[in-house]
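Q: Can someone sanity-check these two? First one:
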Amino acid sequence: MAGFAPQHLTALLAPLKHVSNCWIAFSGGLDSSVLLSAAATVREHLPGALYAIHLDHGLHPDACEWAAHCQSQCDLLAVPFTVRRLHLRPLPGESIEAVAREARYRAFSSLLAPGDLLLTAHNRDDQAETLLLALLRGSGAQGLAAMPFAAPLGTGRLVRPLLDVTRESLVAYARSRGLAWIEDPSNRETAMDRNYLRLRVLPLLRARWPAFATTLSRSASHCAEAAQLTDRLAAQTLAGLDGERPGTIGIPALLRIDRPLQKAALRLWLRRRDFALPDTRQIDRILDEVLPARPDANPLVAWSGCEIRRYRQDLFALPPLPDPPLATLEIDWQVGGDVAAMLGLPKGLGRLEWHAASDRVDPTDGQASELGQQSLIVRFGLTGQDCQPLRADHRRPLKKVFQEAGIPVWLRPYVPLVFKGASLIAVAGVCRCRSPDSATDPLGEFRWVGHPWEEFGLLMQERRRV
C-alpha cells in the first residue's frame, strides 16, 4: 500500500459484522492521530459508532497535558472522548514496558462491550519490529506470527487496520492534513529494545533492503498460517487430554503423544486459560520434571502469573498461590439461629458461609435441634488433627480425609478448619466432623466460596444433610 487514505479504513472494516461501537486507542502520537482523523472523516461509513479512548499510564510528568491534547483533538473532530488513568507502579526489577502493555490490554478489555471494536494504529513498521524482537527472543511460530489483523479482546475484538501501511505513509498523511501530535520523549531512549531497533538497527536495514518491512510482514503472515495449523492440530489433541477435574490435563494421556505435540498442546491450553506463555526452558521443565514425577510428589514450575502443579494424574495451571495463613491465626465466628452467617477469610481465599439446616436436618445423624448462637474458631494449616466424617464409622487423620477427598497437597494449608472449642467440627468444602459432643454442634452447612480453586471442582460443598 503505497499511500494512505481514509477510504482504506472503510474497505478493511466493512466485512466485519455485528459491530456496535468502534473505539480508537488514541495515545495522541502520530500513528493514532492519523487513525482518529481518518476514522472521523469516514465515520458515517464505519460499521459502528465512533469513540476514542486515551490511557494515562501515570508514568510521565506531562501525562495530564497529553490527555488534555487528546481531549482537544477529539473536540475538534466531534468524537466522544474517554480517558482512563492506570496509575502504574512497577516493582523493582519489573519491565516498565511489559507492565504498561499488560495494564493497557486489561483496561481495553474491560472497556469493550459485546460487539465493540478497538482500533489500534499499529503499522507495517511496527509489525517488522515485533517480528525482529520475537526472533531475538527465540520465539516459536506463534510469536513469529507477530500481530494479527484482528483478535478477540475481552467481549469485543481488537482490530489493527493500519498493519499494511508504512510509517512513511502515515507521516505523509499527517503532514498533508496539518495534524498535531505528541512526541513522547521516551521514544528516543535506546535503552528500550524496541526503540533501539527502530532508531539504530532498522535504518541500516532499510538502507540496504528498502522493502524489508514488507518482506518481514510477509514472513509474519507465513508464520501466522503455520501457527494456525499448529493450533488446529493442538486443539484436536487437547480435546482428548482432559484430566479428572475441569480445566486440567490428564498426565497419562499427555505422556502418550510426541514431545512436539505435547508442547503445542500445553501452549494452547495455557493460552485458552489466559496465562502468559512459558519460555522454552520452562516448558521443558514441565515435560521433564512435572510429568514424570511420582503421583504423590509436589513439583512446581512457575513464571510470571502462572504456576504449573500436579496432583495424582492431573496437571493444573493456576495463578500464583498467596502466602498460606499462619497456623497460629485464629478467626472468631458467631453462627446459629435461622440467619446465614458469612466470614471473610484472609486475602485471596474468598469467604466462609454457614447456612442453617432448616428442613434438611437428618435425625439419623443424632444431632439436636438448633441451639442458637454459638462461638466458633476458624484456623488453617494445622497438622496432627483427626476427623470422623458424619457418615464414617471411625476417626481418621486429617491427611487421610484430604486424600480421600482428592485435595492436593499444595492446597491443604489454605483449607479453613472450623473448630468449636478444641474440637474440629468441619473441614470447609470437604466434610463435617463428629465432635465429642456433637449434639451441641451448630446444625447446617459450611460452604467455602470465592476461592481460586472453584473452577477445578475442588472443595465442592458437602451436600449431605447434617
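And here is the second, same format, sequence then C-alpha cells:
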Amino acid sequence: MNSTATSPIPAPAIARPYHPVRLLPGLMLSAALAFASIEISNNNWLQAHGMSVLTIAIVLGMLLGNTVFHRMGAQCGSGVAFSKQNLLRLGIVLYGLRLTFQDIAQVGMSGVLIDACMLMSTFGLAYFLGVKLFKLDPDAVMLIGAGSSICGAAAVMATEPVLRARSEHVTVAVSTVVVFGSIAIFLYPMLHGLHWWQGRADFGIYIGSTVHEVAQVVAAARTIDEHTANTAVIAKMVRVMMLAPFLLLLSAYVRRRQPQAKSPTTASTFASRTAGMPWFAFAFIAVVACHSLWPLPAAVNSTLLSADTFLLAMAMAALGLTTQLASVRRAGVRPLLLGGLLFAWLIVGGAVINMALSGLF
C-alpha cells in the first residue's frame, strides 16, 4: 500500500467497529443523497440521455465529498463505509430480481454466446491493454474492464469488494462508463441506419451485448423501434446475469495471486481460501433462480426493486463521498484512453461477433 495515500475520512472513523449509533449519521447522509438522486433522475431530459440513478448518486456524492464532507468525516465515516461495503452487497443480491432464466430463451443460444464472447473478449482486451500497454494499476484495469464488458457502474461496484480496490479507481472506472456509454446513446441509432448492417443480425442483441449501462441500452434502443428496445433489454439482462460467474472466477484469480503462508493450519487454510469469496454472488444466483421458479407478486417485486435501487444509490453516493478529485486527476488520461479503446472494440468487434454468431443456432 502506498504510504503517501491519504483518505478523505479520518482513520479513527474507519477503524471503529460498526455500531448502530455510529452508523446512523453516515447512513442518513448516504440515504439523503440517494433520495435526491432518485428525484433528480425523474427528469425527462436526463432519462432520455441515459443518465441513471447510480450515475447521479456518485456525482452528488463527489460534489459533497470534495467540498464540506471533510468537516463531518469523523461523525459520518462509519456509516458511509457501511453503505459503500455492506449495503452494496445487499443491493447486488436484490439486483437478481430483475432477471429470470426465462430471459435466456428469448434471445436464444446465439444471443447467450454473443454476450459471453463480448464479455470475455472485452475484459481480456482491457487487461492486456491496461496492464501491458498503459501500465495501469491492475485493480483499476479490472474495474474498467468489468464496467465495459458487463453492466457498467453496477458491475464496477460489484467487482470492487472482490478486489478491495481504492475509491479513486472505482470512480475512474465509473467515469469511463458514463462518458462512452453516453456517446453510445447517440451513436448506435446512426449505426442502425448504415446499409452494411441491414438484414445481417438483430440490432437489439447488438445493442444489448455492447452498450455499457442498462439505462443507456434503453435510451439507445428506444430511438430505433419497440422490437429493438425489447430485444436489447433482454440481451442486456442475460449479460448482467453473467456477472455472478464472472465474480466467482475473478475471486479465484485474486486468491491465487495473493501470497499464502508457508505452513498454514487446516483452519487458516480454509479461512484464506474463503476470505475473498464473493458470497453475495451465490446469493445473487439464488435470487435469480427463485425469481425464475417462483415469481413474486408484481407489487412486491416492484417494491423490492425500488429498495434495491435505493440501496445501490446509497452505495454510489458513499463512494462519491470518499473519493477525492485530486486522486482521480492523478490517474491521468490513460484510463480514459483505455475506456476509449474498449468502446471502439465494443462497436467494431461487437458488430463482427454479432454478425458471425447470429445465425449459428
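A (reply): Looked at the second one. The mean pLDDT is 82. The first helix runs from residue 11 to 15.
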